[in-house]
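Minutes, project check-in
Item: structure for the 452-residue chain
Input as provided by the requester:
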Amino acid sequence: MSLDFLSGIHVLGTGVLGWVVPFLILLTIVVFFHELGHFLVARWCGVKVLVFSIGFGPELLGFNDRHGTRWKIAAIPLGGYVKFFGDENAASVPDQAAIAGMTQEERRHSFIYQPVARRAAIGVAGPLANLALAVAIFALVLMVFGRPIDAPRIDIVQPGSPAQATGFKPGDLVLAVNGHAIESFGELDQIIVSSAGERLAFDIERGGLRLTLDTVAPTDKKDFGIQRNIPPQVGVVQPGGAAAAAGFKPGDLVLAIDGRAIASFADMQSIVRANAGKALVFEVERDGERVTLRATPAEINKQGILGIQSPHPALRPVGAVRAFELGLRQTRSVIDRTFSYIGGVIVGREAANQLGGPIRIAQVAGQAAEEGMPYFLNLAAVISISIGLLNLFPVPLLDGGHLMFYGIEAVRGKPLSERAQEVGFRIGFAIVVMLMIFATYNDILHFLSGAS
């Protein structure tokens, strides 16, 4: 497969069409491995699997394997399911009529008559498969495409920032954090962001001497205050953003904003973030000529967003063992940031309007497809983690809800009544629907603000 495969798909259509195909590819990959986790553990436990479906609704194509499982692709490609022997529907609700008429041999192969431990193992296998997929994808990207070659050297320390209070100075080279070797600036930034409220010990090299600086990572949204001196050049212009509407192009070098000279990409970011909704005049150099562009940064979470990224750094392939180690670390970092965000929403530190749904995922998938295979695969890993964690929430209808019921059954020595489980599933369905409506509402607002 060509490495430009996804970019080729993206340019077949613009706008919505340019998002839909990458989104469906991404969703199919993630859903397939989630359901494969349930499927494999169920087979190992001796449970008969009737259907393995990618999508819902009418079947488009499929086949039966030698064990009698119907593998199929359905018409509505927004999810999938595994249906076990004894299930009434795709949500694994028991078919009471079928269960009542089962022989002893049939009960051995039905899901409902498995011991609690086996049912729990089958239930948790889907989310765990998503997390394992994320580790594998991160590691594969590092082995095949490599990791950024950007030494963790600090070029800029913002005045009044936590970094300045800690004692950092321009020119410091970070060697390790809490004893873990640091190989890139991106890895350093990722550790700081995912360690909110935790004590960090930085081993640095300054003027040929090795020093240790101790601090506590910020718990709010304030930047730690260390930056690289990246030139203010446009690497990627996000479709539908303020920069795209203004006419920015990859390669543009920003010289000034509203007459103020710009020395680094960080300078440009600071001005844009502080001027959400305000028209700005950009002086840029393009192919040796000076061009004037006018753009109004969109407001997202009270910060201005222009919709551009700096050029991607060069990449260097990583060995298999190191790639697996880094894949685990990246997966843990995404999990930590996810729980940090959820906790922030609960206590009011984070805005719930950043919760995205299918539209936002589709838009980001289109952008990732345009940037290339490694960025699309990394997005697939992040989405896989998100789906895995979401399914572990103790909400009836999700895997976590089933696990909650199994836990109650283990404590009581018997399952909840059919009526109690039915009420639980209805409540779970209502919660999932409300969450989807809220996320879609956020998506629409985000899309309109980016297009304005």
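Outcome recorded: The CA atoms of residues 241 and 307 lie 5 Å apart.
No further action items on this chain.
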